[in-house]
User: Which sequence fits this backbone?
């Protein structure tokens, strides 16, 4: 996808995966479609009258070159669903975003990711749950994913950083400004700590009632599973959990007191049988099949390129040799030889059924 064209479509902020598919069927590529973009095409894509006017105005005012310069100035990167670096887990969902803006270390999305979500009105009990769960999940090698909202989201990010882990914050607005402003410094700490902030929206997009559910699908899509730490009825965290179920991912819920309205949403999900009740991080790790180590990850210097490639894709989630071959790009002989040598050094281990984990 031509970058200038991609940036233009991203700026217009209307392109979903379904609309992309429809455009490609008619025009073959986005460059051709952009030349035919008018009121008629926008209405064929399902845009409302007010959206049509806004899109045409944004198209007229947009210049890719200064926009690209602004991204560079802010240290932001941009990629499309066609790019090789697009997150693998996210690409698998049916409504994957077409564009992503990001700052930080995108490669952490190659590690096992777990969403931890909850209410903005966090209780003392919810805070204790976050403080209990997050450090243990970090020690097991998981990357936490949340939304950088106040309350549970912010607590998850802070606890991850404090535990020496890395976290992903998915935002429901453009990266031109961090909302809420109280968490702007936290966003910087996430990036400086080796984490990632991520958004599908153009720089100037403001948060709204539709942007947060859109963000929630990315949180669920990036993650092996979603843990609801504290959620009243109607909480956005429940939307994330429902989306995770739709994507065939695991959903876990922490229970609270039956009289506590902050846990009414949690109990509702449990009552419907839509989630697994968990009382500790160990419960989550056991359900996910993560092999947790009692100590911190072994420091191991790879002896050759094959070992380096395997260490880059090995995680605490068990993987078969076929998985490792696909993700590392190495032939079977090199994978087998490197795994054997690293196992002798204690850098990797077998998890049963021909699967391997990093120690």
Assistant:
């Amino acid at each position: 996808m031509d970058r200038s064209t991609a940036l233009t479509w991203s700026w217009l902020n209307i392109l979903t995966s379904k609309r992309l598919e429809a455009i490609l069927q008619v025009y073959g590529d986005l460059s051709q479609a952009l030349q035919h973009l008018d009121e008629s095409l926008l209405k064929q894509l399902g845009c409302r009258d007010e959206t049509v006017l806004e899109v045409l105005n944004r198209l007229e005012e947009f210049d890719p070159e200064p926009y690209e310069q602004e991204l560079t100035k802010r240290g932001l990167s941009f990629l499309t669903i066609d790019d090789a670096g697009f997150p693998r887990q996210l690409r698998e969902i049916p409504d994957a975003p077409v564009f992503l803006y990001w700052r930080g270390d995108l490669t952490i999305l190659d590690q096992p990711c777990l969403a931890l979500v909850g209410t903005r009105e966090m209780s003392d009990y919810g805070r204790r749950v976050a403080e209990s769960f997050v450090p243990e999940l970090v020690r097991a090698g998981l990357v936490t994913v949340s939304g950088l909202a106040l309350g549970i989201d912010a607590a998850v990010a802070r606890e991850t950083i404090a535990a020496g882990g890395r976290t992903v914050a998915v935002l429901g607005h453009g990266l031109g400004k961090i909302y809420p402003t109280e968490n702007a410094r936290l966003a910087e700490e996430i990036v400086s700590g080796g984490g990632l902030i991520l958004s599908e929206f153009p720089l100037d997009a403001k948060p709204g009632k539709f942007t947060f559910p859109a963000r929630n699908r990315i949180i669920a899509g990036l993650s092996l599973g979603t843990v609801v730490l504290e959620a009243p009825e109607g909480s956005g965290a429940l939307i994330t959990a429902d989306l995770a179920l739709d994507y065939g991912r695991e959903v876990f819920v922490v229970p609270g007191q039956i009289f506590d309205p902050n846990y009414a949403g949690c109990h509702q999900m449990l009552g419907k049988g839509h989630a697994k009740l968990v009382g500790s991080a160990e419960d989550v790790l056991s359900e996910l099949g993560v092999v947790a180590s009692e100590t911190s990850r072994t420091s191991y210097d790879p002896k050759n390129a094959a070992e380096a490639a395997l260490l880059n894709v090995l995680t605490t989630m068990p993987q078969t040799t076929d998985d490792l071959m696909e993700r590392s790009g190495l032939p079977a002989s090199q994978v087998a030889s490197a795994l054997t040598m690293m196992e002798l050094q204690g850098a990797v281990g077998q998890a049963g059924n021909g699967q391997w984990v990093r120690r």
